[in-house]
Design goal:
The chain is 48% helix and 12% strand. By secondary structure, it is mainly alpha-helical. The strands form 3 sheets. The protein has a two-stranded antiparallel sheet with strand order 1-2. It has a two-stranded antiparallel sheet with strand order 3-4. A two-stranded parallel ribbon has the order 5-6. The longest helix has 25 residues.
Length: 196
């Protein structure tokens, strides 16, 4: 809109472009804090777009993702039926996005899918089903449910685990870390396009 363009023009006239953008984003943050109903989507999307091209902004964005993974891990630990503290740490360390198709992703809500706004992995760190193959109705499994099952099974170092229906391997990776050192996981997936 016109006022936004005028504000950007003033910032560019006073500073170098990077400083103008950072000042503008700081202004958006200040307004978002003052008005909690504002979502700050422009800030998030802008930071995500700039992050791969700017080390300083990339470090900030990466820090937020680490924080979100840590919170997600705490949620998974709360869902587990075990007192094993390793489960929380492993859910924090294993990146969910590494075991999914490239984003943007399709998140299951009710009986339909909703596309994530971008390929930012931040959208994956919630208790949501993420599609692996929408045509066949295959997803990567509900995190709370899997955390509870894994916690109840309580795999220990040195044990052998069999994972049937491994999908693209997210929960297999979590299981494999729980049986270290000396343990093994045998994973099976009948969908050839998923078994990588």
């Amino acid at each position: 809109n016109r006022s936004m363009r005028e504000r950007i023009a003033r910032l560019e006239a006073d500073r170098r472009p990077k400083e103008a953008i950072l000042a503008f984003l700081a202004e958006i943050i200040d307004r978002s804090v003052a008005d909690p109903d504002r979502k700050g989507c422009l800030l998030v999307n802008s930071a995500l777009d700039v992050a791969p091209h700017d080390a300083e902004i990339g470090k900030v964005v990466g820090g937020y993702l680490d924080e979100i993974r840590g919170f997600y891990a705490k949620l998974m630990a709360g869902a587990r039926r075990s007192r094993d503290p390793r489960l929380e740490r492993i859910f924090e360390l294993v990146p969910r996005e590494a075991f999914l198709p490239p984003g943007p992703w399709k998140i299951m809500v009710g009986d339909s899918y909703i596309d994530t706004p971008s390929a930012d992995p931040i959208y994956l760190y919630q208790n949501a089903l993420v599609a692996l193959d929408t045509e066949k109705g295959i997803n990567n499994g509900e995190p709370f449910l899997h955390a509870a099952w894994i916690g109840a099974a309580s795999p220990q170092p040195g044990e052998m685990v069999t994972h049937i229906g491994a999908g693209m391997g997210y929960y297999t990776a979590i299981l494999s870390m729980l049986v270290l050192p000396g343990g093994r996981v045998h994973a099976f997936e009948i969908e050839e396009t998923l078994a990588v």
